[in-house]
Amino acid sequence: MKSIIVALALLFSVTAGAAQQSLYQQFGGKQGIADITEEMLFQVGGDERIAHHFEDVDIVRLHRLLTEQICQVVGGPCEYTGDTMKASHRNLGISTGDFNVLVEHLIRAMEKFDIPTSAQNQLLAKLAAMHNDVVEE
């Protein structure tokens, strides 16, 4: 019985610690976000379903801008310096399917870096609001 109480106390202290961290901290700060973004872009480059959308893109610049944007979205000290989502995706023919594939890769990247599911869901909810500015259907 004592070991169960100790295990529960340990579990609650770990959970409480994660809850006290800001969303930005749960993503590992700017470097953690940069790592996740890099992993996502690496996966996208090998995915024939959407890689064609990135063929003529300056990937280094895109990585920097996505890192800034995600950092800002999760409450970090970054400022997104790119164009609006609507302007940067205009006339690219991005479908809901394309959008969803990118989200799949983002989720895989976040899982690879052990981002808590609740933190993932918070980011995804914020990014979902951009759907209509990115997709042209």
From TrEMBL:
Keyword Transport: yes
Gene Ontology molecular functions: heme binding; metal ion binding; oxygen binding; oxygen carrier activity
The protein's required cofactors: heme
Signal peptide interval: 1-18
Gene3D superfamilies named among the record's database cross-references: Globins
Cofactor binding note from Swiss-Prot or TrEMBL: Binds 1 heme group per subunit.
Keywords: Heme, Iron, Metal-binding, Oxygen transport, Signal, Transport
InterPro entries: Globin-like_sf, Globin/Proto, Hemoglobin_trunc, Hemoglobin_trunc_I
Keyword Lipoprotein: no
Top-level taxon in the UniProt lineage: Bacteria
Residues that bind heme: 89
Family per similarity comment: Belongs to the truncated hemoglobin family. Group I subfamily.
Name of the protein in question: Group 1 truncated hemoglobin
